Amino acid sequence: MREAITLKISRGREPGREFSFAQRRQSIIIGRQNDCIVRLPDMKVSRHHCELDIEIDPPRIRIRDLGSLNGTYINGALVGRRDLEMEVDNNFIEMRDGDRLGIGSACELLLSIPADEAIPEIAGYKAVAFLGRGGTGKVWHVRREADGADFALKMVDVRGRINRNDQLRFVRGARLAEQLTHPHIVCQEAYKIGEDKATYHIVQEYCRGGNIYNLMKRFTSPLPIEMATHIILQVLDALDYAHHVSLYRDDGRIKIGLVHRDITPGNILLMDDSGQPTAKIGDFGLSKLFELTDSTAPDNLITPTGTGDFAGTPDFTPAVQIKNYRKAKPEVDVWAAAAVFYFMLTGCPPKDLSYAEKWKLALLEKAIPIRKRNSEIPIRLAKVIDAALVEEPIIGCQSARELKERIEAACSKRLSRRHGGAQRVHERTEGSD
What we know:
The protein is built from ten helices and 22 strands. The chain folds into two domains: 5-112, Tumour Suppressor Smad4 (Sandwich), CATH 2.60.200.20; 125-303 and 312-414, Transferase(Phosphotransferase) domain 1 (Transferase(Phosphotransferase), domain 1, Orthogonal Bundle). It has a six-stranded antiparallel sheet with strand order 2-1-11-10-7-8, with no helix packed on it. Strands 4-3-5-6-9 form a five-stranded mixed sheet, with no helix packed on it. Helix 3 runs antiparallel to helix 5, helix 3 runs antiparallel to helix 9 (400-410) and helix 8 (379-388) runs antiparallel to helix 9. The protein is α+β, with helices and mostly antiparallel strands. The chain is globular, with a radius of gyration of 22 Å.
């Protein structure tokens, strides 16, 4: 059985009742309405009272009030209420293990996050610190005993903990990652299956700067335009490489290109926390091979996920990927990269998916123009980002290289100033001004 995060009613109706959450990423609505995942049938609870965002890459639990009448509290402190006129989109509050979540005066729930397991023992490496949980495994900071070099260890014990599809994703991601060599993709050091055939280990490059979420938390606001641009150009350069790289399948056949399918702030890691950090894309465990010459043919796909089995993150997933996950093409990564850029510049995802059933809303909602969220964004750059987030009839930018060139053209003066005029100024491309 998977470890689960739980909310237990400690005061109010049905004391002792527990709500458990074990999925990789969930948006939980608490309220008295029938569509709420945590339903509390009390008139002092608003229909949609508050939203709990649970992420496990790394573990992160946040709460925000949804304009409730009687307020939302953490450990007795008011964090949101309708009459406070708080901006909902920017009002997520971090929660920790043992926090008491008050839903008005109606009830109180106790948050419980499972304790981490014992420190792993891996031959040749010594564990330094636990970093967090990913979609299919736990991640540790480890040190190689031979030379003291730092690495990240991703490990999964499959015995009764994950299903067969998760195992296949993990193994496939490791095999593909071994073939990737790019300065902005996390480098894999070693891949090993335990002697008991039940434990999978991946030792990879250690990114001490954390991820985009960690970086934005340090800034407590949207990132400066220059920093966000510096990061996203590196990401797009890596995607352009991944979408065209030649890879070998297990049967020895060559396939061209790799689609990540889960580009999010949590999967963009940083080597440092300087003003111009080196960014690297991590976790290709959700990737699949595609062949540009005939990408619609079923026998060209390596897809361990069955029909209807979906993975990804709704805030950073285009509708076309939700509709047909198995045949996702490179442009879904380009859309997601544009969504991450938007997030870095505004602190908000492009779509307003505030309420229950985020996946359904992601199919229906359109991206909100970025200058409505941050009027400081230059008009030329805003037009590029808004165009890249168009989804109908097709995604606005079809390649990572195209989006990279459009961003560079829109920011050419800024980039030239930052590099003392040495930065090459690209020609304008259609839609970049």
